[in-house]
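Hello, quick one for you while I still have it in my head. A protein chain has come my way and I'm curious about its shape. I'm sending you its amino acid sequence along with the backbone structure tokens. I'd be grateful if you could look everything over and explain what you see. Here's the protein in full, and shout if anything looks odd to you:
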Amino acid sequence: MANDDHAQLRKQAERDGIEFFFAMFVDMHGKPCAKLVPAASFDTLMEEGAGFAGFAAGPMGQTPADPDMMAIPDPASYTPVPFRPGLAVLHCDIHVEGEPWSYAPRLILKRQLARLADRGMIFNCGAEVEYFLVRRTGEGGIQPADPLDTAAQPCYDAKGLTRMYDHLTTVSTYLNRLGWANYANDHEDANGQFEQNFTYADALTTADRVIFFRYMVHTLAQEAGLAATFMPKPFAHLTGNGMHVHTSLWDDGGEPLFHDTDDSRGLGLSALAYQFIAGILEHAPGLVALTAPTVNSYKRIGVGPPASGATWAPAYATYGGNNRTQLLRVPEAGRVEHRGVDGSANPYLALTGILAAGLDGIDRGLDPGDPNRDNLFALTPEAVAARGIGTVPQTLVAAVDSLARDDVLRTALGEVPGGWYADYYIETKRAEFREYHQAVSAWEIEKYLTLF
């Protein structure tokens, strides 16, 4: 069967005029790594893979003494690069000495999806990927690429969209050429911030598309003399970058499992969907380590509004209807939006955690209670405490400490040679926090230099 897939892919690539392939995978942080392979070596690539020194690529569970990681392409992930005629991306699964490498994020998600398939279910997801277009300043900082984009509330600004028309329409054209069905392109809530939406798909396809989308936007921005950033909070005074994920379960016959028109709570959700929600809320403290995985992530999370008037990022483990102050929002019947995922998230790991948490809620028959209808950004700490609302961790180190105590998420991330992937992830993130914490910031100098 694999040989048939390879033969069909070869024919498709020949029809598309593909001369080179990127054999691509991501490390723990979601950084795309690739080798450029000529089409003449297609058979070798498909049968043997492309070799990488894993230690050099990033946190992939290897030392310089370990054997090569072999990136084995997934034929179903074939993506012609619309801005580089003759080039195509193949997302790859990492193997070492002939065996799947359990440190590979894409394989971690595939393993979780296989468990779901054993239940006769499919996990469909859509991702709203936000980013800023910026320019470097002479002082080493950044500023919005559009010097006229200075409004206090720039969201949906038609003039701002027009000034970035060439970039946005180019990305939109390429998304549609790929068959991803781009359906909206927005100026978002911050100066210089944009979002370009494409239709949902199964979780693995959506994760692959997020990686490709980031790669494409970065490249097109650089070619225009700009920089794109998906960093959660590049500007202290502006709204940060989210990557809101819309989720739903379907049976393997294509029937939605989250929809119920007779929902007594009025959100159009099934009992299964409420159990899924309850699982995510219960595991929210540990899950945030996967959905908001950087030091910078925790400068986005919270209730204090930036200059534009609202943070749009959750601070509490709650769910509600069409209410953007909740961690989990139900914008319409049959789907649940997770608003705690940010622009730095590795989509493979984030979706693994969301699915595992939701399934635990289903397995245990959990009930999330009635939806929260508050404007959570306006509640005082005393009001939050009185309602018994749980908070999400406020720092990366607190989040990974919560992950360390969450056996469901630890199990979902899986075993690796010598232990658990969660422990490897946690130590990597703790080291990241220590590196940040040891740096002395300009704020500290200003605050403390002559205070004492």
